[in-house]
Design goal:
Length: about 70
């Protein structure tokens, strides 16, 4: 090497496009799963509120106080 000039460069290249595609696909699946879980949670919560309301209505129509307490 004269005058601090680079005489040779060695490099290694690797195609990671498939890895990037796979990672993107996994991220999309995880995002979709999270959205679906939120939707299921929302529906379960709504259904539980319906059941609670029905039980509350039923307990108001009972004549026996002990049975009303059970509800």
């Amino acid at each position: 090497m004269k005058n601090n000039q680079v005489k040779e460069i060695i490099g290694i290249g690797r195609d990671i496009s498939e890895q990037k595609k796979a990672k993107s696909k996994i991220q999309n699946f995880l995002s979709e799963k999270e959205i679906l879980l939120k939707e299921v949670h929302h529906r379960v919560k709504n259904n539980m509120n319906v059941v609670k309301s029905l039980l509350n209505l039923q307990s108001k129509s009972l004549k026996i106080p002990e049975a009303s307490e059970v509800f």
